[in-house]
Amino acid sequence: MESRFHQELDVLKMLILQMAALAERSLMNAIKALLDRDVDLAGKVIDGDREINLLEVEVDRQSLKLLALDQPMARDLRFIIGCMRIAVDLERIGDQAVNVAQRAQFLSSRPALPPNPVMEQLGETAIDMLKSVIAAFVNEDSQLAVEVCRMDDVADELNVTILRNLLEYMVNEVAAVERSVQTIIVSRCLERVADQATNIAESVIFIQKGVNIKHHCQE
Amino acid sequence: MNKQCKMASRRLNFFYGDYQALHDISLELNENQVSALIGPSGCGKSTFLRCLNRMNDLIPKSRVEGEIILDDRNVYDPGVDVVTLRRKVGMVFQKPNPFPKTIFENVAYGLRVNGLKDSEALASRVERSLRQAALWEEVKDRLHRSALGLSGGQQQRLCIARALAVEPEVILMDEPASALDPIATQKIEELIHELKKNYTIVIVTHNMQQAARVSDVTAFFYMGKLIEVDLTETLFTRPKYKQTEDYITGRFG
After folding, report:
1. CB-based contact, B245 to chain A, within 8 Å
2. Which of A161, A193, B147, B249 could join B98 via S-S bond, C-beta 3.0 to 4.6 A?
3. Strand B34-38 to strand B200-204: parallel, antiparallel, or no bridges (unpaired)?
C-alpha cells in the first residue's frame, strides 16, 4: 500500500496536472482568439486566469506542508522542489496567454493585418513545447524534456523573423504601426512561453536525474 | 573529499557464530569529519561501529576477518593493547550511563585509571572536558554532587565529557540522542558540530534527518553490506543506488 506521504505527493502531482491542463487550454484559446479575431474567446482566456493563479497558491501550500511535516529526501525532495518551480512557470504561461488574449481583443477591433503564417508557426511551436513538456513530466521522460529544450531555438528564430518582417512592413505602412507593435508583443509573449516550457523541461530533468542544467551550468 | 583518512576498514567481515553480520566492508573515516552510518535495524551499522574499537571482542563466538586500520596500524594485530585502543577510540552510547559518582569523578575517572594523580592537573582536565562538552556552565557550581541528578541530556553530555577527558582521537557515537528530547538532541548535535574540529567522529543513527544535519559523509548499510557511501548532501539529494533511494524515501519493504 502506498504510504500517506506518497499519497500526498500524488495530490501535488494532480495539482500540477490541473494547472498544466488549464494553462495549455488558455494558451491554445488565446492563439485561436488572435488568429480568428474572436473577442469572446479572448475574454474567456482573461477570465480563466484566476483559476490557474489559485492552483499555484495551492501547489505552494501543499509543497510547504510536505517539506515541513515529512522532511522528504532524494527523489521526493527533488519532486517537490521541481513542482514548485513548474507551478511558477505554468502560472506565467497563463499570464502570457492573458497578454496574447488582450492583444487579440485590441487587434480584432482594428482592420486586419496581412496573414502572418510565421506567427501561426510560432503559436504551434509554443503549444507543442508545452504539450511535450507536460508529457515528459507525467511519463518521467527526461529524454523528451531534453528535446523540448532544443525546440526553444526554433521559437527564438521564429520570433526574430516576425520582428524583422513587421519592422519592414511598418516602414511602408505608417498607419499600421500600432497594430504591428501589438503583434510584435504577441510574438514576444509566445517566445516567452517557449522559454517557460524550457524551464519546465529543466525542472523535469532535475526531478529525474538530480542535475541542474539551468543556464548551462553543467557545461 | 580531500581529508586525511584517520581510520579505515578493509574487507571487514564479522560473524556472530555462524551468522555473518558484515560482508566485506571497506570504508574510510576521515579526520575532522563526521561520518554517519545509516540503515534499517539489523543492517550491521552498530556491529561495524563496535568493530572500530573492538567492543565486539566481548561477544562470545564472534569472529573478525579483514582489517581495521587506525593511523596505518591494524587494530586487530595481536600486539595491540585494547585498553590503549579504546582510549584513542572513545565511545558514547545510546543511553546516558554516568557512574553513580559525582559529576567531577565521572570525568576524572578515566584520567585516574590512566595514572593521573595531581589534583590541579585533574581539575583542569575535568574543566576543559566539561567545557568541550558544552556542560561546564550548567554544572560548575555542583561538580561534587551526584551525576545521577542531571537531566538526560546533561548526563549524555557528561558521558561525552568523560570520553573526551582521556583525549581520544576518534569518537564513536551509537545513537547518542535517541533517548533525548528535541532540545537536548539539538545541543548534542551542535556539540558534534564543534567536536569535529578536533576529532574524527563516527555516528550511528536511526534518524535520517539527524544524519543529514550532523554528518559530512554518510554510509548506507543494508543486510550487512555497505551499499553506498558519499558526501551527505549528495547521498540525501541524489543517491546512486536504488536501495539507498528506497530507504531514504521510505519506500522500503
Report:
1. yes
2. B147
3. parallel
